[in-house]
């Protein structure tokens, strides 16, 4: 599609203020480093503190994007209405039983935020505990954490972020009268567990660099300054989190980066207890604990178990010397998670790029698998809030089948459908086809592609296609039902997911082959998927749109440099495109914890050169680029706003073609964009309108 589909509008031109940066004897010049606010920590908490020249540039970029997309306003409204029409506005979850109550979430018609409720255990009138819409009144951004109820069911710990910066304020609600107590915790990383006596709770505090580094215990009624420090992590490369057990008997402190983990535990009934180390961190050793009465179940890669195995250890002494194999390692079968019950152990695993659930009877060791029929699908192990039960809960969907929630009796093997995702505007799975393809990568590996399209679509190369990819941190993108892409599919698009290396779709090796010195496999896999779809006649390069966000935005930046001719358009949401500069800046929130994923270019010249060879910002060169839409959030602590801002400025400088390159910065949100469930749809509608316009389904008139 020719570039004149977009109007001729003069783009903003960022001023060049060259800064020389030298590492390992190598000097680079960054003309746009000034877009990084020196007071970025202050801006996270108060966006009004952003320097005037930077704000002016971001606002100019927003105005340019608005002008280029002005003729799609009606289309955006239509797309928004379609996507909203597929959402059951007064939807609610299936309540989860916990003691005398069952807890759940629900939305009111027109509501942006969830409300949390409970009912008597066996059903009855709903008691609203917390109403997100009420709490969000008057705030331009508002996000609730998942709340935690106390073991005695008298209190609710809840938290909110009203900037998008992920600094949470925690409050304690007395459920007898729904009043918040005077307790207020600032700069928390989210809610934590109550102690067994319901007299206080544990939480993680973020430091000045937005890193979760300290675990505190807060006694109800105390000032935050009085809180007891339970654990402090001094290594900036490790994340810290805290959570409890379903029996309310243990508090777990997890310390980890992307390849190494360490746990400390303390009894939930003793707020004065010191945490006990389970197994000291050992580079590359990963493990997690699941309490099971008198034993801990341990999911670990110890002893070379690359795809993980399950071990046990006695609660009386769970140190590493007492770990014993229970479910041995099986290469190619990746165990993702486990949930323990009194009589059963359930695991979610991945084999041949498909998930499966296996139930093991603890006493006999007998195992059985819950069977499914579709060619490609997604599973989620929801588990239960209780330990002494025969029933676990899981979710199922495919790219054509709406999500279903089941209760499964592990003893009788009876499966009960509790809920099927409703699509109020209508959805007939028979109108669509889902397929699993395998694209040959340059090194001979076969890369899975999951796709969906209308059954009546002509597969002659003329169809537009949205190819989505992520490929980092071992995250697997499931072949799940998603209502939003149906707005594209119903307009003749193919929606495809590239299960590229960097994820764990084909086991741990699939992840290891897409990180650090092997990172470029992620990019070449995605390009291979694009070319395979073209070769099979599904689409053509001038009809192909690529999309990825965050680390998937890095992927977008890389393929834009490596194979711009293969894509008509690219959407890069909060894109991690300034990789080298970010990994060289150890003051940023995620930099030290990310070194195991990308490498440490400060300490290692080899890592520096590896990252420099693919970092999208550093590898922009004179060539025609696809039409690009980049999305950013001003208060994003994960991918800072200046990464896409710098990237877009430099792309324009080197772009030898006529395709426009746009940046939209949400000046009131962070990494996840707008906070409300419908407000978020407005941003998706913009992206989809951009895609539809780029491939020429609508003209510029």
TrEMBL record:
Pfam families documented for this protein: Peptidase_S9, Peptidase_S9_N
GO MF entries: serine-type endopeptidase activity
Domain Peptidase S9 prolyl oligopeptidase catalytic: 481-696
Keywords: Hydrolase, Protease, Serine protease
The keyword Hydrolase appears for this protein: yes
Keyword NADP tagged: no
Superkingdom assignment: Bacteria
Alphabetized Gene3D superfamilies for the sequence: alpha/beta hydrolase, Prolyl oligopeptidase, N-terminal domain
Any single GO BP term: proteolysis
Peptidase S9A N-terminal domain ranges (all copies): 11-420
PANTHER family: PROLYL ENDOPEPTIDASE-LIKE, PROTEASE FAMILY S9A OLIGOPEPTIDASE
Family affiliation: Belongs to the peptidase S9A family.
UniProt-recorded name of the protein: S9 family peptidase
Organism taxonomic ancestry: Bacteria, Pseudomonadati, Pseudomonadota, Alphaproteobacteria, Hyphomicrobiales
């Amino acid at each position: 599609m020719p570039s004149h589909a977009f109007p001729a509008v003069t783009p903003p031109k960022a001023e060049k203020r060259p800064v020389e940066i030298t590492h390992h004897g190598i000097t680079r010049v960054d003309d746009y480093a000034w877009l990084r606010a020196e007071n970025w920590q202050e801006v996270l908490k108060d966006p009004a503190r952003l320097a005037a020249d930077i704000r002016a540039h971001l606002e100019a970029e927003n105005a340019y994007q608005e002008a280029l997309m002005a003729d799609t306003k009606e289309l955006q409204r239509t797309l928004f209405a379609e996507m909203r029409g597929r959402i059951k506005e007064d939807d609610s979850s299936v309540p989860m039983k916990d003691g005398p109550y069952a807890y759940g979430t629900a939305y009111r018609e027109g509501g942006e935020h969830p409300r949390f409720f409970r009912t008597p255990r066996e059903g009855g009138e709903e008691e609203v505990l917390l109403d997100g819409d009420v709490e969000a009144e008057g705030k331009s951004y508002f996000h609730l954490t998942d709340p935690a109820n106390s073991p005695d069911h008298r209190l609710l710990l809840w938290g909110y972020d009203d900037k998008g910066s992920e600094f949470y304020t925690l409050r304690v609600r007395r459920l007898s009268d729904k009043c918040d107590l005077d307790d207020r915790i600032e700069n928390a990383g989210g809610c934590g567990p109550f102690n067994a006596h319901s007299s206080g709770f544990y939480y993680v505090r973020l430091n000045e660099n937005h890193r979760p580094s300290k675990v505190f215990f807060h006694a109800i009624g105390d000032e935050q300054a009085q809180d007891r420090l339970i654990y402090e992590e001094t290594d900036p490369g490790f994340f810290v989190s805290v959570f409890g057990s379903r029996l309310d008997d243990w508090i777990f402190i997890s310390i980890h980066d992307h390849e190494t983990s360490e746990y400390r535990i303390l009894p939930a009934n003793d707020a004065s207890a010191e945490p006990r180390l389970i197994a000291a961190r050992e580079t590359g050793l990963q493990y997690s604990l699941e309490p099971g009465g008198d034993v801990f179940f341990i999911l670990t890669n110890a002893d070379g178990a690359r795809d993980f195995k399950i071990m046990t250890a006695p609660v009386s002494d769970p140190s590493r010397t007492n770990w014993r194999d229970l479910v041995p390692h099986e290469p190619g079968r990746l165990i993702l998670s486990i949930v323990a019950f009194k009589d059963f152990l359930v695991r979610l695993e991945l084999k041949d790029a498909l998930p499966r659930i296996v139930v093991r009877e603890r006493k006999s060791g007998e195992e059985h698998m819950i069977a499914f029929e579709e060619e490609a699908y997604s599973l989620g192990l929801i588990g239960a809030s209780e330990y002494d039960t025969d029933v676990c809960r899981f979710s199922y969907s495919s790219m054509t089948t709406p999500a279903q929630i089941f209760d499964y009796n592990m003893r009788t093997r009876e499966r009960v459908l509790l809920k099927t995702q409703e699509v109020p505007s209508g959805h007939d799975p028979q109108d669509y086809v889902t397929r699993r393809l395998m694209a040959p990568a340059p090194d001979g590996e076969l890369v899975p592609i999951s796709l969906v399209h209308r059954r009546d679509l002509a597969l002659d190369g003329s169809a537009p296609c949205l190819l989505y990819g992520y490929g980092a941190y071992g995250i697997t993108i499931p072949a799940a039902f998603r209502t939003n892409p149906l707005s594209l599919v119903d307009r003749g698009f193919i929606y495809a997911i590239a299960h590229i290396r960097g994820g764990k779709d084909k086991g741990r090796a699939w992840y290891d082959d897409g990180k650090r010195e092997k990172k470029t496999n992620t990019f070449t896999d995605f390009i291979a998927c694009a070319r395979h779809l073209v070769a099979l006649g599904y689409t053509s390069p001038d009809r192909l749109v690529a999309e990825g966000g965050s680390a998937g935005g890095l992927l977008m930046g890389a393929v834009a440099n490596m194979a711009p001719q293969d894509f008509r358009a690219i959407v890069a949401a909060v894109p991690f495109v300034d990789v080298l500069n970010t990994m060289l800046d150890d003051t940023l929130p995620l930099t030290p914890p990310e070194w195991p994923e990308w490498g440490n270019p400060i300490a290692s010249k080899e890592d520096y050169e590896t990252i420099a060879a693919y970092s999208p910002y550093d590898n922009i060169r004179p060539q025609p680029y696809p039409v690009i839409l980049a999305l950013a959030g001003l208060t994003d602590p994960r991918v800072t706003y200046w990464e896409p801002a710098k990237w877009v400025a430099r792309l324009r400088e080197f772009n030898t073609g006529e395709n426009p390159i746009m940046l939209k910065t949400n000046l009131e949100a962070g990494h996840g964009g707008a906070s409300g469930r419908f407000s978020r749809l407005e941003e998706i509608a913009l992206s989809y309108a951009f895609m539809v316009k780029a491939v020429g389904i609508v003209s510029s008139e």
